[in-house]
């Protein structure tokens, strides 16, 4: 980002000069979230970041999601209350992994929610701006009501049709499943039955979770490469802790078949990743690190697409 452009910004806190305002902003180490998702709005010149609130990530009454805003990925304004649980909302805990996508003129948040006696699921919320307020669409999740699901993400295929990719949880099926489901054009409801793309144990690197035959699937994110290959990064537990692996669609289509890459993108105690480009064009992976509560913080790593796969740059 051009530093002179940043100095001209009139939206710094309190109208302070740039350098003084910068010193009052947050840095990544100050932001306690899991599952960091970055929406890069080049037209506005801002990066927006969302994530699971660290304080209530594993327990306690959840209140919603916050957002943060930055010009340079180092200094962040916020938190901004982008979603707060409305009266009568069906879920009350485990508000997880919000993602924000721009689609057909609106901003759509995909996020996971849970309530006692109800299956965890991904619900879609909508807003007119990246910082909300986001309002739930429909009465509940778009994932199947009797499935324990999480981490829905949006993918638009080569025909322009929207899909949600999500995880059918290991807590219900043992060998966690990665699934895809076509959505209605306005994202309001499912437009097909779920399709299983692959299972966690199809990859060589995940280790069992809390008993034999249990393998986690978490955090899918799709990457359409410059050579038209379709890749997915996703998380599970590996021998060195929470990690990110890579799957590749042999057909280049969301329906696969999907094969698992031998090399992982990230191996050591950090994960739930997504990919975005800086305004200068550098590809970055965003993840939380470490995967140890309450020390999780957002982290970005330079990433490259080479020889048909993704890798961190040294």
From TrEMBL:
UniProt keyword Magnesium, yes or no: no
Recorded GO MF terms: hydrolase activity
Keyword Hydrolase appears in the UniProt entry: yes
InterPro entries (alphabetical): GH43_arabinanases, Glyco_hydro_43, Glyco_hydro_beta-prop_sf
Origin: domain of life: Bacteria
Listed Pfam families: Glyco_hydro_43 (PF04616)
Keywords assigned by UniProt, alphabetized: Glycosidase, Hydrolase
Pathway assigned to this chain's UniProt record: Glycan metabolism; L-arabinan degradation
Annotated family: Belongs to the glycosyl hydrolase 43 family.
Name of the protein: Glycosyl hydrolase family 43
């Amino acid at each position: 980002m051009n530093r002179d452009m940043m100095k001209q910004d009139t939206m710094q806190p309190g109208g302070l000069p740039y350098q003084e305002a910068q010193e009052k902003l947050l840095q990544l180490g100050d932001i306690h979230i899991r599952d960091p998702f970055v929406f890069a709005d080049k037209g506005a010149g801002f990066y927006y970041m969302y994530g699971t609130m660290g304080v209530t990530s594993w327990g306690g009454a959840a209140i919603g999601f916050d957002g943060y805003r930055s010009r340079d990925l180092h200094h962040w304004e916020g938190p901004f209350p982008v979603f707060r649980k409305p009266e009568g909302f069906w879920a009350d805990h485990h508000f997880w992994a919000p993602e924000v996508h721009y689609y057909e003129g609106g901003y759509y948040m995909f996020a996971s929610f849970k309530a006692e006696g109800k299956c965890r699921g991904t619900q879609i919320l909508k807003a007119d701006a990246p910082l909300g307020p986001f309002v739930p669409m429909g009465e509940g999740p778009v994932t199947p009501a009797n499935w324990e699901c999480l981490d829905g993400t949006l993918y638009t295929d080569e025909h322009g049709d929207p899909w949600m990719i999500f995880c059918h949880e290991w807590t219900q099926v043992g060998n966690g499943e990665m699934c895809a489901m076509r959505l209605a054009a306005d994202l309001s409801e499912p437009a097909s039955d779920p399709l299983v793309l692959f299972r966690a144990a199809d990859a060589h690197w995940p280790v069992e979770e809390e008993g034999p035959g249990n393998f986690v699937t978490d955090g899918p994110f799709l990457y359409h490469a410059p050579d038209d290959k379709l890749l997915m990064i996703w998380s599970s537990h590996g021998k060195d802790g929470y990690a990110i692996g890579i799957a590749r669609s042999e057909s280049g289509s969301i329906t696969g078949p999907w094969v698992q890459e031998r090399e992982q993108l990230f191996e050591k105690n950090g994960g739930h990743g997504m990919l975005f480009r800086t305004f200068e064009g550098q590809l970055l992976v965003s993840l939380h690190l470490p995967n140890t509560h309450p020390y999780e913080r957002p982290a970005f790593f330079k990433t490259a697409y080479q020889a048909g796969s993704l890798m961190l740059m040294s």
